[in-house]
Structure to design on (683 residues):
């Protein structure tokens, strides 16, 4: 019994990070139809910034969290202005915009990855932080994994609450439901889009900062998270942040239990299995409305 | 008028520029080409074990005025490309280097799979290749005359590990392995030799490249309480397995992980808990004065330590290549014959080849007193084997 609870918890921990990464991507895709395949690269940047701060100044990764958030939020606004604003203005049709944003994002992916390579090199890097084991109700986990999970939950739930309760959130939800309608009722779309894009990247950065406590980092660490995040947002439904949270946790648990029962080599089969199953039964995602 | 003047000037420049060039550089450089992973999942391994050594070697040789080829000093010009951890890119790049660029020599890519793809091509074009990071019996069995493996093959390494386990009274072992050429060949070599020693394998599971959570498997293994844990792992999963074994307080008497245990980053991220962890390694700076000199030159140039396994094999391969060039010149067939037919002095001691295979014993190393020291076999040991491994703190 204890083993199963531990497996379940371990799956939730991994899933929490998946959820946080996916929510950032969902903000970009669900709201603006920017298929940002370079999302994982910003996770990597967040991880490197945290690592850097830790090695150079011994700054606790917790102190780096707000710094990473602000830095990536800023670069998000800049990138939106440089890459996607003109693209959106010149490409009004949604399908064409999606395809073109995908190409731009591919370019960004190579750019950011190689930037990291130039600065830090391809070495595997890491630091030791909160790696002692703690017992929670008889279950054993390393402190840094629990902290990363807690961080992921705080940021995920924080975002959901923000969107549910504030005026800004209301505006964002309105844009998700109907871009044209939002414009008609006077929502300042040209100002909100870069902001939401920035928040998306900032969430990826935060996820990276949290991950750097647990895993080793390298410039190519981001790509697998982009793939997982794409699965999660499809699972949960485009534009549904609650869906991303639940989808991420679900995927984490399925992977943990599945790899225990079968074989870790089948992890991708399991993830895609869930994915296909949901697509067959609920093609618009678990939490899609209508 | 003007066009004629310009033509005249251009021709004059070409003529004199050309002559000046020839005067300045008495001998053309030796062009040595390679493709290696600078990006992608193989980059961390390639950039620790292999490419820094190429760069350091070229620097040292050029600082000394170059290599002596037929009485003439010639510098080395490295032509290195990124293969992006993609086999097709590596194959295409090597093809281009050997056919279009017509480089004098090539240096191998990183990793068993990459070498498996590139070795037959290099062989066909008659380029000798001394691979410091290819662990594959299949490759050795192809009997390519131009291919030399600088690492002892899986059956040699796994025999050494099994000998050590048996000598320390291990009765049960749990093993995980990566589901690629490296992991599959090593597990195939590992199973028969441990069984021959009367050791039972109580759990055996594979996992994919880029795995993010091994704790479900490790928890199952912990329940079976084996004497020894053996991970036939690559660098990121070596560290992951160690961290997660600690997380669940899985403390077998022997904790063995394969590639990456010898990397300095292992000690950085595992910290004091690295003490007592065993893995594949073959040298330390205590092995020989030449090894120490190499170690110090590497640290001085890159501000990072070389790993305690294949880095030294890579360096030894460059020593062999250098000796061959200075002895027989740049004729690739002659270089190949020189490598195959002689015993070579290297930082790892004398090295000789039998077919493609290096004649070098299997070794096991362990983190002892903050360094990764050779602990098995006893006659190559630079430190005493510590068993049982101290519990994770």
């Amino acid at each position: 019994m204890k083993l199963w609870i531990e497996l379940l918890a371990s799956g939730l921990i991994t899933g929490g990070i998946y959820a946080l990464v996916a929510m950032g991507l969902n903000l970009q895709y669900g709201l603006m139809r920017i298929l940002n395949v370079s999302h994982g690269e910003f996770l990597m940047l967040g991880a490197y910034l945290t690592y850097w701060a830790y090695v150079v100044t011994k700054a606790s990764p917790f102190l780096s969290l707000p710094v990473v958030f602000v830095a990536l939020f800023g670069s998000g606004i800049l990138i939106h202005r440089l890459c996607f604003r003109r693209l959106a203005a010149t490409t009004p049709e949604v399908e064409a915009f999606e395809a073109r944003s995908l190409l731009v994002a591919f370019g960004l992916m190579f750019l950011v990855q190689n930037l990291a390579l130039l600065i830090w090199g391809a070495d595997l890097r890491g630091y030791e932080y909160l790696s002692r084991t703690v017992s929670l109700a008889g279950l054993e986990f390393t402190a840094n994994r629990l902290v990363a999970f807690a961080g992921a939950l705080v940021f995920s739930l924080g975002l959901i609450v923000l969107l549910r309760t504030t005026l800004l959130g209301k505006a964002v939800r309105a844009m998700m439901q109907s871009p044209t309608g939002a414009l008609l009722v006077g929502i300042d779309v040209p100002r909100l889009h870069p902001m939401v894009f920035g928040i998306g990247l900032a969430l990826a950065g935060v996820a990276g900062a949290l991950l750097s406590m647990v895993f080793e980092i390298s410039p190519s660490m981001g790509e697998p998270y982009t793939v997982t995040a794409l699965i999660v947002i499809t699972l949960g439904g485009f534009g549904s942040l609650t869906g991303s949270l639940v989808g991420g946790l679900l995927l984490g648990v399925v992977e943990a239990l599945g790899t225990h029962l079968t074989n870790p080599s089948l992890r991708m089969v399991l993830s895609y299995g869930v994915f296909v199953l949901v697509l067959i039964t609920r093609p618009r995602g678990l939490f899609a409305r209508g | 008028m003007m066009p004629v003047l310009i033509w005249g000037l251009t021709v004059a420049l070409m003529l004199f520029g050309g002559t000046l060039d020839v005067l300045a550089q008495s001998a053309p450089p030796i062009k040595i080409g390679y493709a290696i992973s600078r990006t992608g999942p193989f980059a961390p391994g390639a950039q620790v074990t292999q490419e820094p050594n190429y760069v350091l070697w070229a620097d040292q040789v050029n600082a000394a005025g170059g290599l002596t080829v037929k009485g003439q000093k010639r510098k080395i010009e490295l032509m290195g490309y990124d293969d992006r951890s993609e086999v097709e890119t590596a194959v295409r790049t090597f093809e281009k280097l050997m056919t279009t660029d017509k480089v004098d020599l090539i240096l191998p890519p990183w990793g068993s799979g990459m070498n498996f793809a590139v070795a037959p091509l290099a062989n066909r074009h008659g380029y000798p290749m001394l691979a410091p990071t290819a662990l594959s019996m299949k490759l050795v069995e192809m009997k390519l005359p131009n291919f030399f493996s600088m690492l002892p093959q899986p059956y040699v390494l796994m025999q050494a590990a099994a000998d050590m386990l048996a000598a320390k009274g291990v009765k049960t072992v749990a093993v995980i392995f990566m589901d690629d050429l490296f992991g599959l060949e090593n597990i195939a070599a590992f199973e028969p030799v441990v069984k021959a020693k009367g050791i039972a394998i109580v759990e055996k599971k594979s996992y994919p490249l880029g795995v993010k959570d091994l704790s479900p498997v490790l928890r199952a293994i912990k329940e079976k309480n084996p004497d020894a844990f053996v991970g036939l792992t690559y660098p990121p999963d070596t560290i992951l397995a160690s961290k997660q074994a600690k997380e669940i307080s899985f403390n077998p008497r022997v904790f063995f992980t394969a590639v990456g245990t010898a990397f300095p980053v292992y000690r950085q991220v595992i910290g004091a808990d690295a003490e007592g962890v065993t893995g594949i390694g073959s040298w330390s700076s205590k092995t020989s004065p030449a090894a120490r000199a190499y170690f110090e030159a590497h640290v001085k140039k890159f501000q990072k330590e070389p790993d305690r396994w294949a880095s030294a094999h890579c360096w030894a391969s460059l020593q062999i290549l250098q000796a061959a060039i200075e002895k027989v010149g740049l004729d690739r067939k002659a270089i190949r014959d020189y490598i195959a037919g002689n015993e070579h002095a290297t930082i790892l001691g004398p090295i000789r080849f039998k077919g493609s295979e290096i004649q070098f014993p299997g070794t096991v190393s362990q983190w002892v007193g903050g360094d990764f020291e050779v602990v098995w076999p006893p006659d190559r040991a630079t430190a005493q084997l510590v068993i049982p491994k101290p519990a994770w703190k």
